TrEMBL record:
Cofactor info, note text: Binds 1 NAD(+) per subunit.
Binding site residues for NAD(+): 206-208, 292, 398, 405
GO biological process, one term: one-carbon metabolic process
Protein name, per record: adenosylhomocysteinase
Length: 470
């Protein structure tokens, strides 16, 4: 794979699709800034003291205008930043170009291949020979996975003298991962150990990645402190109460030119994300059916007038399938797809790409792939000549086909929590406050994130007197 970094006029490294889009990206970033008051308050409150000066931050999070506001907040506080996207289709190329030109090293473009995706992650973690990031902004865990798999391979090499063998697995993604690690070890056989030793901590925003990190903590294998920003009150409460409910299902209309009214839509999962999508589909006129493994979530759906069935019960009836159970592997399998109506639409709004059996679909004997819009493919089975339409190759559709989350609530709170966690980890790096465990953001800092919004929103807090406070 012939990929190489380029350099901006500032000598900053980057790899983006089209630098000529930088001016348009800057306009979009300026619009996002207005809707993200906490991060703008961060700059005015903390910027003059440069508390992140000297910190090297690697970010692994969707490269959008909203993310750009986070990146430039971190640089405004003194950090150096290298960034990649946590999804092959989520980058908005104009935003990537603006950041690459103006403020940080970026390696991201919309429509990356699997090899390009992992190359970008490696570049974001690469701070030169023998060094890595001090801090990581995480959204899904792949950047951390590369470090952990690298450490495992280096330990095996030390014991056996054997480099990792990509042919030892039939998983295409793991083959790429092992190739990157193997090639790097030939230059520096302790690269990932050095990276781990220099890592002050990680802020992580994805529920499933957080659960994996809690699991590592329970087994004593967690190698660095983590602040779980997914469970901050300012993250969960605002997403639940105000959150991301779209006026139409994310990306569906743009991607497949489909009329939703009158269609049967199956939502796989009825957690927070599933409720939003079910409501959006109902609002657009669909008859919604939910599949669920949790009895409490199922009861909530029934009490809201939504039918609960198994996928097998409805697979041949439905027109649209929306997977929301991002933490589960193998929700819709190729055998399900073969039973679906001709041109049934399948998409995923969960954070990971293994809920839909894309490997089984891609390797099905004789299957034919027809691309009729970017990231919109019709897969035709040879025996029936019937096909299904898969959006964004089974990845997160609201970033593959639309522009992601609204910045005024979701991104403003979430990214401010990231910034606060990064600041907390860096400022406490020498105090021993954070061990190799998973923490939530301390309550007073969670409240600080909420408070940073208020002035820009025209709100004034009532100050309690001593009696009230007591």
């Amino acid at each position: 794979m012939a990929l190489s970094v380029e350099r901006a006029a500032s000598r900053r490294e980057y790899k983006v699709k089209d630098m000529s889009q930088a001016d348009f990206g800057r306009l979009q970033i300026e619009l996002a800034e207005v809707q993200m008051p906490a991060l703008m308050s961060f700059r005015s409150v903390f910027g003059p003291s440069q508390p992140l000066k000297g910190a090297r931050i690697s970010g692994y999070l969707h490269m959008t205008p909203q993310t750009a506001v986070l990146i430039e907040t971190l640089t405004a506080l003194g950090a150096e930043v290298r960034w990649c996207s946590s999804n092959a289709f989520s980058t908005q190329d104009h935003a990537a170009a603006a950041i690459a030109r103006d403020s940080a090293a970026v390696f991201a473009w919309k429509g990356e291949t699997l090899q390009e995706y992992w190359w970008c992650i490696e570049r974001a973690l690469d701070w030169g020979p023998g060094s890595g990031p001090d801090l990581i902004v995480g959204d899904g865990g792949d950047a951390i996975l590369l470090i952990l798999e690298g450490i495992k391979a280096e330990e095996a090499y030390k014991k056996t003298g054997n480099l990792p063998d990509p042919a030892s697995t039939n998983n295409p993604e793991l083959q790429i991962l092992l190739t990157i690690i193997r090639d790097g070890m030939q230059t520096d056989p302790k690269r990932y150990h050095k990276m781990k030793e220099g890592l002050v901590g990680v802020s992580e925003a994805t529920a499933t990645a957080v659960e994996r990190l809690y699991g590592m903590q329970a087994h004593g294998t967690l190698l660095f402190p983590v602040i779980n920003v997914n469970d901050c009150v300012t993250e969960t409460k605002f997403q639940n109460l105000c959150g991301c409910r779209p006026s139409r299902p994310d990306g569906l209309l743009m991607a497949a030119d489909v009329e939703i009214a009158g269609k049967v839509a199956v939502v796989c999962g009825y957690g927070v994300v599933g409720k939003d999508r079910a409501a959006a589909l109902k609002e657009a006129g669909a008859r919604v059916i939910v599949t669920e493994i949790d009895p409490i979530c199922a009861l909530q759906a029934v009490n809201e007038g939504i039918q609960v069935q198994t996928l097998e019960d409805v697979v041949s009836e439905a027109d649209i399938f929306v997977v929301t159970a991002g933490s589960s592997k193998g929700i819709i399998m190729v055998d399900h797809m073969r039973k679906m109506k001709n041109n049934a639409i399948i998409c995923n709004v969960g954070p990971f790409d293994n809920a839909i059996d894309m490997l089984g679909l891609e390797t099905f004997p004789g299957v034919k792939r027809i691309t009729f819009n970017p990231q919109t493919d019709r897969w035709v089975f040879p025996d029936t000549q019937s096909g299904v339409i898969v959006l964004a190759e089974g990845r997160l559709v609201n970033l593959g086909h639309a522009t992601g989350h609204p910045c005024s609530v979701t991104s403003s709170c979430s990214f401010a929590n990231h910034a606060m966690a990064q600041l907390e980890l860096w400022m406490e790096r020498d105090t021993g406050k954070y061990e190799k465990k998973v923490y939530v953001l301390p309550k007073h800092l969670d409240e600080k994130v909420a408070a940073l919004h208020l002035g820009k929103l025209g709100a004034k807090l009532t100050k309690p007197n001593k009696e009230h406070a007591d």
